[in-house]
Amino acid sequence: MLTVLTGKETFPEPCALLLGGFDGLHRGHAALLAAAKATGLPVGLTSIAGGKPGGELFTLPERRVVFARAGIGFVLEYHFSEAFRETPPEQFLAELFARVNARAVFCGEDFRFGRGAAGTPELLQSLAPCPVHVLPLEESGGEKIATSRIKRSILNADMAGADALLMQPYFVQGEVEHGRHVGGPVLGFPTVNLTLPPEKAHPGEGVYGGSAETPAGTFPAVINFGARPTFGVPEKKVEAYLDGFSGDLYGKTVRVVPTRFYRPTQAFASAEELKAQLKKDIARLRMSTE
Fold this sequence. Notes:
290 residues, 8 helices, single chain
């Protein structure tokens, strides 16, 4: 089980620690994680919310799922506040190592920390109370594997490109809300509705094929990211039809996983035209999951 440390909580057990912003885990982090696990110690990492151009790969609640699935034992969560941004690098390290009993530290060669990003791996090595292992950056296709690269793919609806670089597929997690009640009564295709977190890196607007993880199991899904122009709804939401599901998920936590881009969002002349298109989308989904 993942232990979440906020505020001043400590992790007194000897551990291996990964340092970075970590709003998710990508293939470039795999070597760091493997090296930390090889110590045989519980593995923890630092994770910073906010301050990232283009939004977060995963929100804080989503990251906890990602980290737990990767076998991380604990996470130290920070918010990119003014006070955090202005913390001198030496003070950051002193406070960090007062909270965590690190016996080995791992970071990438581009790791920077503290006010003005003045902290470097060399400074870390000089001040850490344990060995610090600085690993080279990983590449794919001749380009550095980086969060910014993955977010570009997501924005461009290239989910396959993004997922190839992530340690687990991109998803959006949220609590199922009451929507407009159009999907079932009007169209014959009941859907779940989630708020698209404003701090999150959003996929390009449109309709996708993928899946949805629910308390009742995982189901193939047709997922719409964005507005619903046929019904004159400009508000951007996540709306998903779960193929094969029947029941009530209101108030439950659901994760939608878009894996293939189907088509752009468009306004149809009538609900009947939209219904006909949805049938095509579902047929496409079923072909890909057979």
